[in-house]
Design brief:
single chain; alpha+beta; YaeB-like fold; five-stranded mixed sheet; 3 helices; 5 strands; 34% helix
Length: 95
């Protein structure tokens, strides 16, 4: 069986998103996009805890695209920056 891309990064994301000490930062863009699409914070956290990183790009931060599902099982993609050293995830957008 072929291993998924970004397996180590995805494992770190799952562990961090599930950690009760993890602090989530929400950009204004993410908040607006979530409101427009009816996406709840709990949906985003579920996708981050159970989804798979499928893409990354380096900008000011290293950004990861996560392909997952919301609490109702609907496909949800989230773009995040992960700060493992300070237990923080910045949500850039969700759709």
């Amino acid at each position: 069986m072929q291993q998924p891309h970004y397996a180590p990064e995805t494992a770190i994301l799952h562990q961090l998103a599930a950690d009760s000490n993890c602090r989530f930062q929400w950009t204004n863009h993410a908040i607006k996009q979530m409101e427009q699409c009816g996406i709840l914070a709990e949906d985003v956290i579920h996708a981050l805890t159970h989804g798979q990183i499928v893409f990354h790009e380096i900008k000011q931060d290293t950004l990861y695209r996560v392909d997952g599902k919301d609490l109702d099982g609907q496909r949800l993609q989230v773009q995040v920056a992960i700060y493992e050293d300070i237990l923080s995830i910045k949500v850039i957008t969700a759709f």
